[in-house]
Amino acid sequence: MKRPLGQGAMFQIYVENTDSILSALRAINCPLYEEPRESWYRVGDRENGLRQFLVQDPDGYLILFGQSLGTRPIRSGAPTQ
Questions:
Q1: What three-state secondary structure class fits 61?
Q2: What is the chain's Cα-based Rg?
Q3: Per DSSP, what are the bridge partners of residue 37?
Q4: CA-to-CA separations, 78 to 11, 45, 73, 74, 81, in angstroms, rounded
Q5: What is the spatial distance between Cα 77 and Cα 68, in angstroms, rounded to a whole number?
Q6: Which residues pair with 67 in a beta bridge?
Q7: How many separate helices (H) and strands (E) can be counted in the chain?
Q8: What are the φ/ψ torsions at residue 41 (nearest 5 degrees)?
Q9: pLDDT tens digits for the chain (81 residues)?
Q10: pTM (whole model) above 0.85
Q11: What is the DSSP letter of 32?
């Protein structure tokens, strides 16, 4: 098998709070593949929020850590992701 082994694969892990994971990764100087961001997705007549970031393990697998931000009414005129 050729490296990176995990090319094209991504795993999603949802946690109560992403702050402790971010702190631990930064403490060991682990680079983030994608910095934390907040995204809101329309689901019916509401928007569901998610704070998420990506890291890549040594074998090339991408791991998304996500934290729910709850729901909110749809904001008129605001784009959703």
A1: coil
A2: 15
A3: 52
A4: 29, 14, 11, 8, 10
A5: 23
A6: 51
A7: 1, 4
A8: -120, 130
A9: 677 677 778 899 999 999 999 999 999 999 999 999 999 999 999 999 999 999 998 888 899 999 999 999 998 765 555
A10: no
A11: P
Q: Are 51 and 18 contacting, i.e. CB atoms less than 8 angstroms apart? A: yes
Task: Convert 5-17 to b/e letters by CB count within 10 Å (16 or more is b).
Answer: ebeeeeeeeeeee
Contact 49, 39 (CB under 8 A): yes
As given in the structure block, the two tokens for residue 19 are: 């702050």
Q: CA 71 from chain center: how many Å?
A: 17
Q: 56: part of which helix (H) or strand (E)?
A: strand 46-56
